[in-house]
Amino acid sequence: MLINFAGILFDGIAYGSLLFLIGIGLSVTMGLMNFINLGHGAFAMLGGYVCVATMTRLGLPFLAALPIAFIVTALAGVILERALYQRLYQASHLEQVLFSIGLTFMAIAAATYFWGPSQQPVQLPEFLRGQVRVVGLDLGAYRLFLVALVIVITLALGWLVAHTRFGAQVRAAVDNQQAAAGMGIHVNRIFALTFALGSGLAGLGGALGIDVLGLDPTFPVKYMVYFLLVVSVGGAGSMKGTLVAALILGVFDVAGKYYVPEVGAFVIYALMVLLLILFPAGLYGRRV
Amino acid sequence: MTVAAAAPPPQAALHRLPDGRWHRIEICFWLLPPAAFFLLPGYLVLGSQILIVALFALSLDLILGYAGIASLGHAAFFGIGAYTAGLLAVHGWGEPLSGLLLAGALAAVAGYLVSFLVVRGEDLARLMVTLGIGLLLYEAANKAAFITGGVDGLSGVTMWKLLGVFPFDLGGKVAYVYSLAVLFLLFLLMRRLVNSPFGLSLRGLREGGKRMPAIGAPVRSRQVLIFAIAAGVAGIAGGLLAQTTQFVGLEVLGFPRSAELLIMLVLGGAGRLYGALIGAALFMVAQEVLSGLNPVYWQFWIGLLLVVVVLFARGGIMGAAEVLCMRLWRKGT
Questions:
Q1: Taking CB atoms and an 8 Å cutoff, what residues of chain B touch A98?
Q2: How far apart are the first and last CA of chain B?
Q3: Quick check: B151 contacting A, CB < 8 Å?
């Protein structure tokens, strides 16, 4: 029973770390640019498809496909940001929501056109398959890899935000955009770079998540709620909040599906509404 | 008396307080649906769908266009109405009008309860809470298959004769007239509502939420009231769909329905009542034509349309028409 519970906890953490990886970009766009991007899942989907395409068409190994997924999605992000998103930073939230729903619909249609409506398989390398025994627990090797990778990325992100000039500029722009611009920070350039980084991470998350979340054209809509949930519960613009919310969500979702499968996704949605009512600005929200 | 007072500036003339008088264009507009009944007898099933969705879009216009409360889960109330009317008929009470009233009443009560969660937050929290409630209800209906039929839908809805005289026919004549009558009646009520002092105060809330309390308007209670009313109208639309199609599918509660509704409203132009009607009609006709070709391409085009409307044509079709009229009017003087 206890071992079983530990296994579920671990699966939940692996799931939550994926949600964090994808959700962090959304959190930054919401916190930094005050932009509600419902199309964020589309970037994750793009990353997944890029990963699959480089592996099947170019014959590259999985680990080499991951950075390519990151780079391609980051590029797509920066192009879309400069061409379209930045026009709507001043628009109302509703317009942003509609615009990003439109982009998502187009992405879904395009994915169906190019790859068909079925689930995409991913060929994991040999050493990531099967189980690993850690202190009496059988853990999935891939999930272990996933958690380790996300820990590394999180530490790197934390260092980037806390100790680099770029990080300081991002924090300044999140706190007060006008004052930051007044101090000579190129806020637009910061926006574009963070958007690229955020969509790149989402793409990486999508590529890593093929084995856990699956990959088909409905991906952006299917998981949209989860990403939004992570951000709105964690508090937009807060890395710590996003991490905590992603882990809570991951564990609750996996546990809910395991222990009370007949209730299904109900647990998550109820949790979402409850948390939003209790903490309208998120667990670690900056804005009141 | 100065000259200026004798000839008021154009802005003042266009933005005068609403009066209840009917414009000639409005009367012509309302002649179209009866005309379609006689001229396009082969399309009455699609026609009644359009009328029902138009009613649904009107209900969203009340909260979004007038009160400025964005919702991503308005289908929840549509679904409550649809299941109420459908379940009533399945369990032996197939009288249409009372079923419709009950559908509206239940949805309004649900809307009243939910509204307290919705109005307290800001834009983002509102979008999330309405989205969450919509998804919650969808999951609930999905899991409660012993009541709702789950993914298979609720079949076996048998309606009695409308008013005890007219049986619902396969060609959809009675359904069309029934839907049109309900739509027109509720439109009259809503038109009266939005032009009343209550409706004006809603617009005040939309334009300047901080100033309204300063002039003594009870912000929260107004928002709660309009939310409940809009939910009730959505419930009636849902009930109409259940009664006229004699089937309730799980997708009445789905997120796509809420999203499409927003698209229609934005396409037509929010905050004008007629925008909702025109947007719904155009959307449904386009869907019928384009998704007949290929459902996947349809989704692409609707996405593109949405992006274009948001980027270049804020205010939708009605907004564009208004700008055009304004220009013509200025040229005329």
A1: 262-263, 266, 306, 309-310
A2: 21
A3: no
Q: Which residue of B128, B142, B143 is in closest CB contact with A232? A: B128
pLDDT means per 10 residues, chain A with 288 residues, are 76 90 85 81 92 88 90 93 86 84 89 85 77 73 88 90 88 83 87 90 90 85 83 78 87 83 74 75 57
DSSP letters for A200-255 = HHHHHHHHHTHHHH---TTHHHHHHHHHHHHHHHH-TT-HHHHHHHHHHHHHHHHH
For chain A, the domain total comes to: 1
The residue assigned the tokens 């929260």 is: B220
Tell me if chain A has a CB within 8 Å of the CB of B118: no
| ipTM over the 0.85 cut-off | no
Please, is B108 exposed, middle or buried when counting C-beta atoms within 10 Å of its C-beta (0-12, 13-18, 19+)? buried
Q: What is the CATH number of domain B38-293?
A: 1.10.3470
Q: Is A288 part of a structural domain of the chain?
A: no
Q: Is residue A283 part of a domain?
A: no
Give the C-alpha separation, B238 to A274, whole Å. Answer: 27
Number of CB pairs < 8 Å for A and B? Answer: 117
Determine the residue among A94, A113, A249, A278 to mutate to test chain B binding: the one whose Cβ has the most chain B Cβ atoms within 10 Å.
A94
Q: Is residue A286 part of a domain?
A: no
Question: pLDDT tens across B82-127, in order?
Answer: 999 888 888 878 788 888 999 999 999 999 998 888 887 777 778 8
Q: What is the CATH number of the domain that holds A257?
A: 1.10.3470
Q: Quick check: is A284 in a domain?
A: no
* Record: contact B299-A102, CB cut-off 8 A: no
Domain of A45, in residue numbers: 2-278
CA angle A211–A216–A220, rounded 5-degree value: 100
Q: Does A112 touch chain B (CB under 8 A)?
A: yes
Rounded Cα distance, B227 and B71, in Å:
10
